[in-house]
Write a structure and sequence with these properties.
transmembrane; transport; mainly alpha
Length: 224
């Protein structure tokens, strides 16, 4: 079989363009834009755990040496950890650290779930648009005088094939890739937050903890 016979730009444009248009109409521009933003992140480097941890370690050493009262917020080039550093120094509270992380994590999960849903909708709609292309091809050629039924059937098969390929080899895998990347990043961030909270808590003088100073578990202040 000649693979070139399966290349039909018109049919591909009909199925692919129709799928995008139908997805946009079903999901709305806001959610579709979130999906596009998530797709744009896929080729980029994943969350750099080693770099952020090294920079966090510098702030932990500063807190251990000078105390939380004299510590200054650090900039890590990561929106969440920049906010975490500011919250930790401003509130001197490990609870504030966890609260800030929860806020960022919820926002990231919402974006990931929205992107996954939109791509899932596209995967669901692609075969439908393939069927639409099939019906258009058969209807158009059968209506013409002396219609070329062989070509009509070939075009119909190609459009159906495009719909299935887009659903199972493009949109479906992209939805899975977005979900996997999101899960991996959340796991890495959770581990970093746990390490940071434990490291900061170790910097609290033992005498203050023994005296009843609140620690990380109850939202108390981290003493210098």
């Amino acid at each position: 079989m000649n693979v070139l016979q399966l290349l039909d730009p018109v049919s591909l444009a009909l199925v692919f363009g129709g799928t995008l248009a139908a997805t946009l109409l079903r999901c709305g521009w806001r959610d579709t834009r979130a999906a596009l933003a998530a797709l744009a992140q896929l080729p980029r480097r994943p969350f750099d755990v080693a770099r952020v941890r090294a920079e966090l370690a510098a702030q932990v050493r500063e807190i251990e040496q000078d105390g939380i009262l004299r510590a200054e917020p650090h900039s890590f080039g990561d929106g969440e950890f920049d906010d975490l550093s500011d919250a930790l120094v401003r509130h001197r509270s490990i609870r504030a650290l966890h609260d800030e992380h929860a806020r960022h994590s919820a926002r990231r999960r919402q974006i990931s779930e929205t992107a996954t849903r939109v791509l899932g909708e596209a995967a669901e709609l692609a075969p439908v648009l393939g069927l639409v292309g099939t019906l258009v091809a058969l209807g158009g050629f059968s209506a013409a005088a002396g219609g070329d039924y062989a070509r009509a059937i070939a075009t119909a098969v190609v459009t159906t094939l495009y719909g299935l390929v887009l659903a199972n080899f493009v949109f479906g895998p992209l939805a899975g890739a977005v979900a996997r990347r999101s899960r991996a990043e959340e796991t890495a961030r959770e581990d970093l937050i746990g390490w940071l909270a434990a490291a900061v808590e170790r910097s609290i003088p033992r005498s203050r903890i023994d005296a009843g100073e609140p620690a990380s578990g109850d939202g108390g202040k981290v003493a210098a």
